[in-house]
Structure formats: C-alpha cells, structure tokens
C-alpha cells in the first residue's frame, strides 16, 4: 500500500477524517441554525423565505451542498469501519465493566447517538430538503416557511425533532472537543477554551433548533 | 475503612488456556486482613486451593511495589480496582468492605490473549516498542551530562510520559481496546527530548503501524484510559502522537 493511502487507513488517519468531517458538519450547523433562526423574526416567514430561496437556488450553495453530503457520508462510512474494528478488538466482553467510573455515557455512545441522528436526518430530509428539490427541478414556487408551519402541526413530529436535537447535543458534547484532540491540538491555555466553547455550542445550538418546532406547534410563530 | 478481618466472595475468571472457553467461579474467603494487598489475598486463596488439591489461580505479578507493570487484574469492572493511581499489588483489602463480592477478570482484548486464568499475553506491547520505541546511540564515550540543554518543562513532561509501566490498564478499560495511551507515552518520552529527534517521525509512524497490526482498537477520546492509568499518563500524550503522526503523513515529508 502506498504511503498516501496508508495515511488514511491507519487508525489515526481514519480518526483524522472523522474529526475533519465532524468539524465541517459543525460549521454547517452554524449556517443552518443562523438561517433558520430568521423564523423568530415572526414576520410570517418573509425574511426567512428570502434566505431559504437563496440557499435553494444559488449555484455556489448548491455545489457546497454536494460537499456537505460527501462530508456526511464520509463521516458515516468511517464511523461504521471504526466501530466494527473497535468491536473486533474485544471479542470477549467483560462480565462486569464499571465504565461509568472513568468516562461519560455519551462519549461511549457516539455510534448510538449518531445512528439516532441519522434516523432523524432521513425524516428531516424527507420533510424539508426533498420538497425544495422537487420545487427547484419542476420550477414551482415553494414557500418553505409554510411547509415548516404545516409539518410542525403534528405533535409526534415535534417530539421526534426534539429527541433528534437532544441526540445531536450529546453527540456534539463529546464530538466537538474530541475532534480537536484527534487533530493533535492540545494546548494548556486553548484546550480549556475549546472545551468550554464546545459545551456551550452543544447546548445552545440544539436549544435554538428545538425551539423552532416547539414555538410553531404552540402557535408562537405562524 | 474496616478494621476487623473480612469475609469475601470472589468471582474469579478461570480459563484453562487461550483456546478453551472460560467462566467465572465463586470462591469464599474468610478472615482476610484489611492490611493485605489484593495479591496477598490471592496468595491466601491459592494456598487454600492447593491444600484442597485444586489448580491455583494463575495471575501475573512481579515486584509488588507498583513499578514493574506486571500485575493486571480487572477488579469490579475497573483495571487495578477502584482506587486511583495504584496498581493491583498496591491495592489493599481495606478498600473493600466485609461481605463484599469482588469480580476479578483478566484484561480483555484481542491483542492480549488469555494465557491462563488472569494472565494475559502482553507481548503486543513489546512488538510496538521494538518497532520504534528506542533511540539509536553510537558507541563510544558517554557525553557530558549537561551537553544538551533541555527546558525543565520538557524534561518534566518526558519524565511523566516515561512513568508508563506498560501494564495495559489503558487497553483493558478502553471500550475499543485501544492502545493509544500506552503508545503515545512511549512516543512522547522520546519525542520531547533532543536525543529522540533524529528518529522522531520515523518512530511515530512505525509504532502506530505496529499498533494497528496488533489488532488494538481505535481511540474515541472517551478518556477512560487516563482516568484508570495507575501512573497518571495524560491524554496530552495522545494529542502529541496524533500531531507528530499527522505532521509526518500530511505536512512534512517523513518516510518510514
């Protein structure tokens, strides 16, 4: 195997891809939450729809969207490879393992949390991404805001979205700072800053996301 | 902390050899002194087993002073038991209560096959060291001791990494059976010092390649290794190893 491909197939190389794609997806979350927060202007989605239309039609954004899907798929594929290798590394499990004494449950459950996020993501894409794509390619008008309001009238949808972002929050709580550690960034002064920013990011972003279905369901926005 | 002697139930993993399946076997022990070490308690158990004509429990031990890295029991779900910064030989029975049931298992990892009962084969670590965990030194007269200036902070960090005794608790407790803490300590103790520089990037690449070949899992930064390490080896070492490895593979052009 060439040195170049070995760099990516080694354990550290695979984790590097995990961390890099993870940070890329975090940067997407910032864009996503910022644009969606425009619904809180409560102007019947006027400002939000302008932004949503731009995101749906702008050529640069649509090329970046392909990159986003590549990032998600790489993150998932690496996760599957890493998890199966990690399971194989301990064929015989412990009869009694007190893992809670040395690590947090969410740091040990990244695979489970990621799977929950993926399941949520399938529903989420079906709800919002698919209709906008159909509208773009059939050259129809699509009122994204109205679609949001319509979808969040169902209580079970709101509950699934809230559970989805809670999974995301815990996934980020470990993933954010973990990505920097994997990159080898460990600094006496900066690492505590990264950890604090990571914690606040993992709390604030999911709360803003969760407030969207909740406030629409309760009629605060509409 | 109990003062009187204790009665305990041990659930010990018994396994004939690496091929056969093992199982937990119950043993009752009475009149155990709280001042005994955990291994001395096992000595008492083994004497009883020998007197009864049964096979004694095989377990690794050597110096019994907490510095050799031979002892290796997974006690009540934690490597080296419930205390921080101690090896099994330095764990005393006063850390347990009268009437306790204690589960004792071997390190469990594909790369650490069970030899018998609680003894596992940790030669995978030796092969990782042999792959690059050394400095090549020319023969001849020893250099003057202070010939090479080393900042105090670096000397301290190298010393702290060198405190690793290679017991394998990090692998045992990691949910992925990853050896990153061990390998990173062995990479760091040399990478931090001037003597380690000529082979620095060759070393990290060789040792990581050997680590992967041995079948250890991949690190997910849960931090369990650092929490359980009897020598307090820090996760900073893992970051340093990642940094050196990525540097060698992606930034500078260091070939193996």
Number of strands of chain A: 0
Give, in order, the helices and strands of chain B.
EEHEEEEEHHHHHHH
Radius of gyration of chain A, Cα only, in angstroms?
Answer: 20 Å
Secondary-structure-based class of chain B equals alpha+beta
Largest sheet properties of chain A: none
**Major sheet of chain B, described briefly?**
5 strands, mixed
Provide the helix percentage of chain B: 25-40%
Instruction: Name the shape of chain A in a single word.
Output: globular
As an assembly, this protein is heterodimer
The mean pLDDT of chain B is 95
How much strand content do the residues of chain B show? 5-15%
Instruction: Write down the secondary-structure element order of chain A.
Output: HHHHHHHHH
Silhouette of chain B: elongated
Mean of pLDDT of chain A? 95
Give the C-alpha Rg of chain B: 21 Å
Q: Figure out the total of helices of chain B.
A: 8
Percent helix of chain A:
over 70%
- CATH-level-2 architecture of the largest domain in chain B: Orthogonal Bundle
**Sheet/helix structural class of chain A:** mainly alpha
Predict the CATH topology of chain A: 3 helical TM bundles of succinate and fumarate reductases
Distance between the termini of chain A: 58 Å
Secondary structure topology:
The complex is a heterodimer of chains A (222) and B (256).
Chain A: H1 3-9, H2 11-36, H3 46-57, H4 59-88, H5 105-108, H6 110-137, H7 144-151, H8 155-182, H9 190-217
Helix pairs in contact in A: 1-2, 2-4, 2-8, 2-9, 6-8, 8-9
Chain B: E1 6-14, E2 23-32, H1 38-51, E3 74-75, E4 78-79, E5 101-105, E6 114-116, E7 119-120, H2 123-130, H3 152-162, H4 169-173, H5 180-191, H6 200-213, H7 224-228, H8 236-251
Parallel strand pairs in B: 1-5
Antiparallel strand pairs in B: 1-2, 3-4, 3-5, 6-7
Helix pairs in contact in B: 2-6, 3-5, 5-6, 5-8, 6-8
């Amino acid at each position: 195997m060439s040195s170049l491909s070995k760099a990516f197939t080694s354990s550290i190389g695979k984790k590097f891809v995990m961390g890099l794609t993870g940070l890329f997806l975090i940067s997407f979350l910032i864009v996503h939450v910022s644009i969606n927060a425009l619904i809180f202007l409560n102007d019947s989605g006027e400002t939000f729809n302008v932004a949503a239309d731009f995101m749906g039609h702008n050529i640069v954004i649509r090329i970046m969207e392909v990159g986003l899907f590549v990032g998600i798929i790489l993150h998932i594929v690496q996760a599957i490879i890493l998890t199966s290798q990690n399971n194989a590394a301990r064929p015989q499990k412990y009869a009694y393992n007190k893992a809670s004494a040395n690590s947090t449950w969410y740091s040990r459950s990244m695979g489970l949390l990621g799977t929950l996020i993926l399941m949520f993501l399938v529903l989420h894409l079906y709800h919002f991404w698919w209709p906008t794509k159909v509208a773009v390619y059939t050259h129809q008008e699509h009122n994204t805001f109205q679609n949001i309001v319509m979808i969040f009238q169902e209580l079970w949808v709101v509950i699934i979205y809230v559970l989805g972002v809670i999974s995301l929050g815990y996934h980020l709580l470990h993933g954010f700072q973990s990505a920097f550690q994997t990159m080898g960034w460990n600094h006496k002064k900066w690492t505590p800053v990264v950890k604090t920013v990571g914690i606040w990011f993992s709390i604030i972003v999911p709360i803003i996301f969760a407030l969207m279905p909740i406030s629409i369901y309760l009629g605060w926005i509409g | 902390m109990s003062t009187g002697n204790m009665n305990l139930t041990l659930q010990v993993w018994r396994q004939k050899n690496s091929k056969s399946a093992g199982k937990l076997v119950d043993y009752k022990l009475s009149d155990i002194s709280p001042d005994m070490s955990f291994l001395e308690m096992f000595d008492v158990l083994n004497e009883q087993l020998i007197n009864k004509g049964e096979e004694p429990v095989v377990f690794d031990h050597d110096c019994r002073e907490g510095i050799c890295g031979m002892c290796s029991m997974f006690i009540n779900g934690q490597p080296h038991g419930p205390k921080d910064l101690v090896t099994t030989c330095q764990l005393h029975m006063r850390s347990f209560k009268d009437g306790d049931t204690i589960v004792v298992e071997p390190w469990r990892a594909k790369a650490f096959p069970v030899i018998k009962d609680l003894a596992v084969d940790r030669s995978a670590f030796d092969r990782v060291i042999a792959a690059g965990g050394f400095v090549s030194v020319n023969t001849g007269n020893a250099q003057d001791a202070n010939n090479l200036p080393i900042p105090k902070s670096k000397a301290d960090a190298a010393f702290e990494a060198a405190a690793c005794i290679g017991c394998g608790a990090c692998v045992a407790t990691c949910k992925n059976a990853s050896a990153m803490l061990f390998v990173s300590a062995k990479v760091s103790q040399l990478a931090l010092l001037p003597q380690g520089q000529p082979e620095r990037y060759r070393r990290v690449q060789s040792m990581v390649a050997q680590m992967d070949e041995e079948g250890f899992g991949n690190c997910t930064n849960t931090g369990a290794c650092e929490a359980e390490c009897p020598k307090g080896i820090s996760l900073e070492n893992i970051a340093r190893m990642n940094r050196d490895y990525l540097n060698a593979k992606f930034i500078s052009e260091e070939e193996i």
